[in-house]
Amino acid sequence: MGVLCELLKPLEALHERGMFHRDLKADNVLVREGDDWPFLIDLGAAHLPGAPPLTEGLAPGTLYCQPPEAIAFLVSDAARKGGRLPARPAADLYDFGVLLYETLTNCRPFSTRLSVEALLVAIAATPPLEPQRLAPDAPASLCALAWRLLDKEPGHRPPSARAVREELERLREEEGHTPAWQSPARPPSEDAGVKERFPDVDMLEDTRLGEARPSALAPRTRHWPRRLVALVLVVGMLGLGWALLPALVPSEKGTQPVTAPHSATPALPSASTPTPSRLCALLASLLGVSTAQLVGCATAPVRPDPIGYLARCSPEARATPVKLGLTPEENPSFFDSGTPASDESIEDGGSLNLKPGPVTATVLVEMKGQEVEMKVTGEAMTMPHRVYIQFDRLHLPDGTSLPICGVAVDDLHQYGIPTYAKLPIRGAKVDPAKVDKSPGSVVLNHPRFETVLVGPEDYPVPPIDFAPPDWR
Question: How many domains is the chain partitioned into structurally?
Fold first, then answer.
């Protein structure tokens, strides 16, 4: 792939001199009209060896292009103590993988329509769709390379920009004559079938930079790089203040990390709430309470808004219960996420530790008159007295999944689930030695709760109330 191979050369030269771009994306690649020569621009976030550091924590960059190790750094002790994320070639190679993925599929690996906290969790823990599922006619070798470049573990990516360039050149030499490399690339507007098969995918938009012209690439080169021209003005920064993230780490050296809000034993938490640090206040306001909890901030409780979440439900998600013929009711559910908080296993109904972030549960639904077991996934938001869960995906027994909007409720028909700290149920066993003391983690009496799904306007939803103020 001529253009991409040439793009790797300046990146290779930078890396060999100890310099790293740290914001490689389509916006920062210009392709010259006439000879398709690529230029790598905007070194404003670059790491230069020997230069005085201007930022702490993370360098400013594009949120959805951040590598998983950057998200892991945000939740590390080093970040809370004022450290900096070391600049490494693997991060630039991950960004190149994002660019290659977009070039092959016309889609972003992770949707910019996700909430910031959900996007961070996805980058850190969720693999993107395999490129060939989105673009079956794309060269399998290029899809495999993109997949390796997007590996969550930096050590599993190719070792250097030179290695990536040499592999691309080898593949171009060996496969450039094949139909998969020779067929013209389709603009996003011609990939409507992708959106039908994967409704949650974040597709790029067509951007025309003048009239289309015949490719000037070598005959062996598939026309995938042509998409780079269209991508230059397509992939925008997610305007949610990512450039502020370096300020989230306190500048005062020696600042102590924020302590977790719970004591070592499963007792009622203190009524007083620690005053949030500058890090926690900014993180809570910018990324939300659950993300602030993930990085160890004892933030002032801010109750989630399950009513607002259900009201904003998309028509596609509302249609799922009717499409499947689900009976509108509170559906018995059991956590698959979490760790045991006693010697009794979660499967046997024992108490469990639950952290904020992604959560999976088994739900029993009545579908067309028969009880069926399915999986639901979503996000948990933990508070000292209550856990709120928003489910956004229903996984069917045949392996397919559909969008939903659902929330967890307790057996009193109230939003959320009370924690063991607020309501220790008689008979629930909790071993202090097994209690997860990490930031934001709470203990629940048992894995059982109820899930309510919202449907179209005429779809009846069981009445649900908020718990009393001191139970929220």
Answer: 3
Among positive and negative, which fits the CA dihedral 352, 356, 359, 363?
positive
End position of a domain, from candidates 294, 316, 333:
294
* 278 and 407, same domain (yes or no): no
Which of 202, 231, 260 represents a domain boundary (last residue)?
A: 231
Tens of each residue's pLDDT in the chain, 472 residues: 678 889 999 999 999 999 999 889 988 899 998 888 999 998 878 888 877 665 566 667 788 899 999 888 877 777 777 778 888 999 999 999 999 999 999 999 998 888 877 888 888 888 888 998 898 889 999 999 999 999 999 999 999 999 999 999 999 999 988 988 887 777 777 776 787 788 888 888 765 444 433 333 333 333 444 443 333 333 333 333 443 344 333 333 333 333 333 333 334 333 333 444 444 444 444 444 444 554 444 444 456 788 888 888 999 999 999 999 999 989 999 999 999 999 999 999 999 999 988 999 999 999 988 999 999 999 999 988 999 999 999 999 988 999 999 999 998 999 999 999 999 998 889 999 999 988 789 999 999 999 999 999 888 888 899 988 888 7
| Statement to judge: residues 173 and 279 lie in one domain | no
| 3-state class percentages of the chain: helix first, strand second, coil last, to nearest 5 | 35, 15, 50
Tell me the residue range of the domain where 179 lies: 2-231
In a domain, 385, yes or no: yes
E runs forming strands in 348-467: 352-354, 357-367, 370-382, 386-395, 401-409, 417-418, 442-444, 448-453
Tell me how far apart the terminal alpha carbons of the chain are, to the nearest angstrom: 56
Please tell me whether residues 391 and 248 are part of one structural domain.
Answer: no
Q: Which residues of 364-378 are buried (b: 16+ CB within 10 A; e: fewer)?
A: ebeeeeeeeebbbbb
182 and 64, same structural domain? Answer: yes
352-354 and 339-340 as β-strands: parallel, antiparallel, unpaired?
Answer: antiparallel
Residues 161 and 136 in one domain: yes
In order, the DSSP letters of 117-173 are HHHHHHHHH-PPPPHHHH-TTS-HHHHHHHHHHT-SSGGGS-S-HHHHHHHHHHHHH
Alpha helices in 20-88 (DSSP H): 68-74, 77-80
Same structural domain, 256 and 221:
no
